[in-house]
Amino acid sequence: MLSERELESCYLGQFIPVHYHHNMLTDTNRMHSFRAAIAHVVRPGMKVLELGGGTGALSFFAAQRADKVYCVDFNPDMVREARRFLALNRCADKVEVIHADAFEYLPPEPVDVVICEMLHVAMLREKQVDVIEHFKRRYLQKFGGQLPVFLPEAVLMAAQPMQHEYDFDGFYAPIVQFQQPGTAQPGTLELSQPAVYSVIDFTQPNDSSYSWEGKFVIDRDGTVNAIRFITKTILSVVQERATTIDWLNHFMSLPLEQPVDAKAGDVLQVAFAYRAGGSIPSLQARLTARLLYQAALQPQVVAYA
């Protein structure tokens, strides 16, 4: 029998089946960004811990420079696959793959860098925030001193009013949509600029609850029938170049239960609340939008010569 945590992990994305990892491995944006960030952060002689190692790809990148890498995963299928893949890549001697719960595991020695890629749009489904917060407390209790460098270092989250086409060959289905950033999206119309609602700095204590209420000025006429959630992951800060190595996650648009017709100049109020690691429906249930100000209803000011 699975424990309550194991059942929740299966439901919320911790036990991602092996075949789904192909999508992550072929995501060049993700892979290139993590490889660059790991190459920047990890120095020769360092010790690295990866929490939620999956296929072991990120541990493989770290092993190119580190002396020792501890790669932890809770899914026994992924532990077997990671050991196999790392052996094929001739770095099994540097990477120790461990079957353990990231909420409980601590390395046998202090480490210099912690990699944790339990990232989902809006920090939903996967347990990135809670895992890191648990780890920091337990690590300081065991080893004291300074915390390791975390990769990613921070996350910025934003929301944006959208109009989506939900007609699928005559079948109307307002459904959650995931879209690749930087590509044309037919049937998708941005009705306002995004607004940042939370910044997570993993070097600082972080609350796992998000509650936000914000206003948007509508840029063009349309029907607000969805809210897009944007998640920009700052993998590493490159101080010497005053820049960052980033990974922009897929956009996620959640349909509104009550669409709002809006015109340019109207002010829309959006509110939502959820917990990091929670389910998508838990956010949808507390997502609302309403007009605060309708530009067309305001009296016109007439100037006389």
Oligomer state of the chains in this structure: single chain
Whole-number radius of gyration? 22 Å
CATH fold name of the largest domain, please?
A: Hnrnp arginine n-methyltransferase1
CATH domain class of the largest domain: Mainly Beta
Number of strands: 17
Structural class: alpha+beta
- Percentage of residues in strands: 35-45%
State the major sheet: 7 strands, antiparallel
Can you say what the CATH homologous superfamily of the largest domain is? Hnrnp arginine n-methyltransferase1
Uncertain regions spanning at least 5 consecutive residues: 4-13, 300-305
DSSP summary: helix tally: 7
Run of helices and strands: HHHEHEHEEHEEEEEEEEEEEEHE
Q: Can you tell me the overall shape?
A: elongated
Q: Which second-level CATH architecture of the largest domain applies?
A: Distorted Sandwich
| Count of distinct structural domains | 2
Average pLDDT across residues? Answer: 91
Gap between N and C termini:
83 Å
Portion in helices: 10-25%
Pfam family, one: Methyltransf_25
GO biological process, one term: methylation
Domain Methyltransferase: 48-137
InterPro entries: Arg_MeTrfase (IPR025799), Methyltransf_25 (IPR041698), SAM-dependent_MTases_sf (IPR029063)
